[in-house]
Write a structure and sequence with these properties.
This protein has a two-stranded antiparallel ribbon. The chain is globular and about 30 Å long. It has a single domain, classed as 2-Layer Sandwich (Alpha-Beta Plaits), CATH 3.30.70.20. It contains two helices and two strands. It is of the alpha+beta class.
Length: 82
């Protein structure tokens, strides 16, 4: 499952540099996560780093992007194969 950033985001800028896949970027109003690049940090860390540093807890799993751990690992391998 990819992660998403909710409208509770306060644009504190701490999540973007933590993402090893460069999936987080500034959106029009709040930060956004590119679901094609988000692996929930599978392949890099045991836990999503953006969730660990978020001071307002506004980065839940995206219920519309359900992916297995194997699918996330495949995505990680695709992203890092370049």
């Amino acid at each position: 499952m990819a992660l998403m950033i909710t409208d509770e985001c306060i644009n504190c800028d701490v999540c973007e540099p933590e993402c090893p896949n460069d999936a987080i970027s500034p959106g029009e109003e709040i930060y956004v996560i590119d679901p094609e690049r988000c692996t929930e940090c599978v392949g890099h860390f045991d836990e999503p780093q953006c969730q660990q540093v978020c001071p307002v807890d506004c980065i839940p799993l995206d219920p519309e992007r359900e992916e297995s751990r194997d699918a996330l690992m495949e995505k990680y391998q695709r992203i890092t194969a370049a």
